[in-house]
Amino acid sequence: MSTALVLFSAGQDSATCLAWALNAFDRVETIGFAYGQRHAVELDQRPILRDAIAALRPEWAARLGEDTVVDLSGYGALAESALTADRAIEMLESGLPSTFVPGRNLVFLSVAAAHAYRRSASTLVGGMCETDYSGYPDCRRETIDAMEQTLSLGLAAPLKIATPLMHLTKAQTWALAHDLGANALVEAILEHSHTCYEGDRSKRHDWGYGCGVCPACELRANGWREWSALKAF
Ligand code: ZN
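^ thats the input. predicted complex w/ zinc ion below
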C-alpha cells in the first residue's frame, strides 16, 4: 500500500497537491505547521478545505487519513519575517522579498519526514514551485533533491519528495486542479483555500478571498485571470 504525507497549508498550491495525492496514492495523510503566522486564518481553513476536497469523490474520502498540526512557534520566532511579524512586505537588498522565512521548507520537510517515518509514508508531497515570483531558494528542485537524499540517508529509509507543481505557473496549477477534479475541485479551492498574506477573508473575488493587493493575492488573481482567458477559447 502506498502512503503519502502532504504538506498542507490550505493555500491554492497545497490544496491542488492534496487532490493530486488522493489520485495517486492508496492512503494520504496531511501535516500542517503553526509557526507564528501573523494570521491564524490559514490554520482555520485547513480542516474546512480538507473536508471539502475529500467530499468530492468517495474514493478520495476513503483514502484521506489523519491530519496533524505541529507547533513550530519557536522556529517562527527565530526566523521572524513579514509572515511572522508585523512588518511591511517589500524587496530586500538580498533580492528576496521580506516574506522569505529562512529555512522554512527545510524545517518543514525535516519535521514532515520524521512524522512520515512513524506513519510508514514513503513519499512527502509539497507545493514548492520554481516559477513562483519570489524565487525562494528552498523551493527550488535542486534544494528538494538534496533534501530527499539527506532525509533518506538520515532516516536510513528511502523517502521521495514529490513536487507536482514545481514547473507550473499559477494558471497551470488551476488547469491541473481542473484536470484532477473538474469544476467542483476548482470551486472548492476558490471558496476555501487561503493565500492572502494579510489574512483577509472579508471579500470574495472571482479568484477567491483576499485583500487583492498583497503579492500573494496579486499572484493568485493573475493566475486565475490567465487560466480563465485560456479556458474561454
Ligand atoms: Zn492579500
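Residues 196-198, 200, 210-211, 214, 216-217 surround zinc ion (CB under 6 Å).
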